[in-house]
Amino acid sequence: MPVAAAHETSTPEFLSGGGELGERMRAFDWSKTPLGAAGSWPQSLKTTVRIMLTSRQPMFVWWGDQLINLYNDAYKAIVGGKHPGALGQPAYVVWSEIWDQVGPRAESAIKRNEGTYDEGLLLLMERNGYPEETYYTFSYSPVPNDQGGTGGIVCANSDDTRRIIGERQLALLRELAAATADARSVEEACRLAALALQTNRRDLPFALLYLFDDERRSAVLAGTSGIAPGHIVAPERVGVHDSAIWPLAQLLEAREYLVVSDLKADPRTLPKGAWDRPPAQAVLLPIISQGQRGRRGALVAGLSPYRLFDDDYRGFMGLVAGQIAAAIANAQAYDEERRRAEALAEIDRAKTVFFSNASHEFRTPLTLMLSPLEEILVRNIRSGAVTADRKEIEIVHRNGLRLLKLVNTLLDFSRLEAGRLQGTFQPTDLARYTADLAGWRRRGCATWWSAHRWTNWCMWTATCGKRLCSISSPTRSNILSAAKLR
């Protein structure tokens, strides 16, 4: 860093304070830059720099034909690893990787004296040794010089990276939950989950869903996102101990995420997702089964080439795997419940068939038994002769009819369950029918009340020493009849 010139004996007032950047700007030898010594700067530049240094908002000033870069302490987080070397350098040198985007905006402010405004603009900055996905809201405002022209640009920045990425990831989780809510089988849950993952190709350039068999010796591809089944990194069946492609055995043992840095494929054949380059890494996450009979699986996802796999990224991928595991568990529970219902329905159908057959088998011998009994009874009535066994025959006939009625009711019930019972409808006067029901209810209540009063009267009679037995039988009958008629 250039050292302050010896002839600058005093610190300019407009550079006082300002934290670390104020100190660095005071120590910087500005005479070796196109701006010249700080004391000779135009008043408009001094005023703008003073506003910048005292602001807590990330701000920078680009000044002169080469747009020399000056910034405050709050802007250090945006400059990243380029600090402190970015101070006093031309803007196109500091931000060479994004100059194709910000250069035309700066030209608009400098040459046409027109400000610009961008909200949540994607900028692939390379400030920490790797290209990084960032989003910023900023405005380029032209600053007039002392001669009335445009001397430079002042810009206030807002870092929207975490907000935009968080909203995008939250939208995927919502889509994943909504898409798999109606899954009715494990296979359908995986297919719908893979379709949902396609809505976020920035965080998941490609994704694979594998389900292990019961013995966990092999895994079957159950869903893909952004890549065709059968690709070199997406075999439709892979052995658990075949680590040539994906280390599934290690994943089963570790029960936590694994990062694969060496993808066994030509980078030119890998899907790029929403980016201009394919992923260089992939992550494997276990799909934990719920319960002893739950299906276990693995989620294989390509990672964004413009993000580090940090705690936020890992947390998001864990939520995705957990959502898929919940969808598979729900679908499996629904499928098991459906099979249970089908088994119960089959048992119910077998029961109905049994009752129907049993009813027919019962009714046939009963009909053959009742017909001779009825002939015997009719013959005895016509002949006028009363046999000694007629009473027993009548008992047998009466109980046979009762049993036949029970069999017919059972047969009707089986027809009703099978849906073969036909109803007979006839016009009904609802007002009259309701009045009759109410009348029956009133008569029933009156009968109960009369009987209740009769019981109380009997108890009173006994209490007074007048025995109920002293009342003659006809009198008791008349009293009961009167109670029933009320």
List keywords for this structure.
486 residues; alpha+beta; Beta-Lactamase; 4 domains; 6-stranded antiparallel β-sheet; 5-stranded antiparallel β-sheet; 12 helices; 11 strands; disordered C terminus
Task: Describe the protein in words.
With about 475 residues, the chain is an alpha+beta fold. The chain folds into four domains: about 15-160, PAS domain (Beta-Lactamase, 2-Layer Sandwich); about 165-340, Beta-Lactamase; about 350-420; about 445-485, no CATH class. It has helices at about 20-25, 45-55, 75-80, 90-95, 100-110, 160-180, 185-195, 250-255, 310-385, 390-420, 430-465, 475-485, and strands at about 60-65, 70, 115-125, 130-145, 150-160, 205-210, 220-225, 235-240, 260, 280-285, 295-300. Strand 6 (about 205-210) and strand 7 (about 220-225) form a beta hairpin. Helix 6 (about 160-180) packs antiparallel against helix 7, helix 6 packs parallel to helix 9 (about 310-385) and helix 9 (about 310-385) runs antiparallel to helix 10 (about 390-420). The protein is elongated.
Short overview:
This protein has 486 residues and is of the alpha+beta class.
The assigned CATH architecture of the largest domain is 2-Layer Sandwich
Give the helix/strand class. alpha+beta
Weakly predicted, low-confidence segments:
1-9, 457-486
Strand content: 15-25%
From N to C, what is the helix and strand string?
Answer: HHEEHHHEEEHHEEEHEEEHHHH
Strand elements, count: 11
Strand order of the largest sheet: 8-7-6-11-10-9
Q: Could you give the distance between the termini?
A: 118 Å
**Individual helix count:** 12
